């Protein structure tokens, strides 16, 4: 199957099965979202959502967070992975917002990645979710699902190469939503350790599933010959 046909089938499936797809992080404004995304690195959204209500209540604006000491912020996020570094990043991010951007979360990749704690993935999340830009954030779920299905070949072995592949083949209008489709599918169906292939409607076109089925069939055939 050619790449264009595969992408068409996958996107049509997601549009039918997941007409509404959005971030599971809780937030009320761009400032809160960038905090939540920084905290979500190597941590579950569920855990982040348990921490952020008190954090947001204490630091309602970039100015308030910019005046905080990382040790104080640490007390609010200590149940999050890497709390020491993330506390420093949050304070540094807020200070940079205030000093360089007037307290407003910037829109471009170049500007966003100048903020402490904000890498390409986080910047793309902000661009897609807040500003509805055609930006594809590749986290572990997007990376895994894309390579399993075949949207990205095995030669795409870095997040950036997967991002470029997806950006090339997904229509611009669908890129922000496709980001969430792939994340949610990886989180609840195409799981890392135990993918729920029995609940997946993409097995007929999934390259990983085809390879596994072929391997299983060969093993059974070999077993029959040795009996």
Q: Which characteristics define this entry?
A:
Endonuclease III, domain 1, 63% helix, 227 residues
Give a structural overview.
The chain has 227 residues and is mainly alpha-helical. It has one domain (1-227): Hypothetical protein, domain 2 (Endonuclease III, domain 1), CATH 1.10.340.30. It is 63% helix and 0% strand. The chain has 12 helices and no strands. It has helices at 3-17, 30-39, 45-58, 62-66, 70-77, 83-101, 109-112, 120-131, 140-149, 159-169, 175-188, 207-226. Helix 2 (30-39) crosses helix 3 (45-58) and helix 9 (140-149) packs across helix 11. The radius of gyration is 20 Å and the shape is elongated. The model has no long low-confidence stretch (mean pLDDT 93).
> Total number of β-strand segments?
0
Structural class by secondary-structure content: mainly alpha
CATH top level label: Mainly Alpha
Q: Uncertain regions: pLDDT < 50 for 5+ in a row?
A: none
Q: What radius of gyration results from the CA coordinates?
A: 20 Å
For the biggest sheet, the summary is: none
Number of continuous helical runs:
12
Structural domain count = 1
Mean pLDDT score = 93
Short description:
Helices cover 63% and strands 0% of the residues. It is mostly helical. Helix 2 (30-39) crosses helix 3 (45-58), helix 5 crosses helix 6 and helix 9 crosses helix 10.
């Amino acid at each position: 199957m050619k790449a264009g046909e595969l992408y068409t089938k996958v996107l049509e499936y997601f549009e039918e099965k997941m007409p509404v797809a959005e971030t599971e992080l809780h937030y009320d404004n761009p400032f809160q979202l960038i905090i939540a995304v920084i905290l979500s690195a190597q941590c579950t959204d569920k855990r982040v959502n348990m921490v952020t209500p008190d954090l947001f209540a204490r630091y309602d604006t970039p100015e308030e967070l910019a005046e905080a000491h990382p040790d104080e912020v640490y007390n609010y996020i200590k149940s999050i992975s890497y709390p020491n570094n993330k506390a420093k990043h949050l304070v540094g991010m807020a200070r940079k917002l205030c000093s360089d951007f007037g307290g407003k979360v910037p829109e471009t990749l170049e500007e966003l990645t100048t903020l402490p704690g904000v890498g390409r993935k986080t910047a793309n999340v902000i661009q897609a979710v807040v500003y509805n830009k055609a930006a594809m954030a590749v986290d572990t779920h997007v990376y895994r699902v894309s390579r399993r299905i075949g949207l990205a070949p095995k030669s795409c072995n870095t997040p950036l190469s997967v991002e470029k592949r997806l950006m090339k083949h997904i229509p611009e209008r669908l890129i922000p939503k496709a980001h969430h489709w792939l994340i949610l599918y990886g989180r609840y169906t195409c799981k890392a350790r135990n993918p729920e292939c029995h609940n997946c409607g993409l097995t007929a076109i999934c390259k990983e599933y085809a390879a596994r089925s072929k391997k299983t069939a060969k093993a059974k055939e070999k077993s029959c010959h040795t009996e």
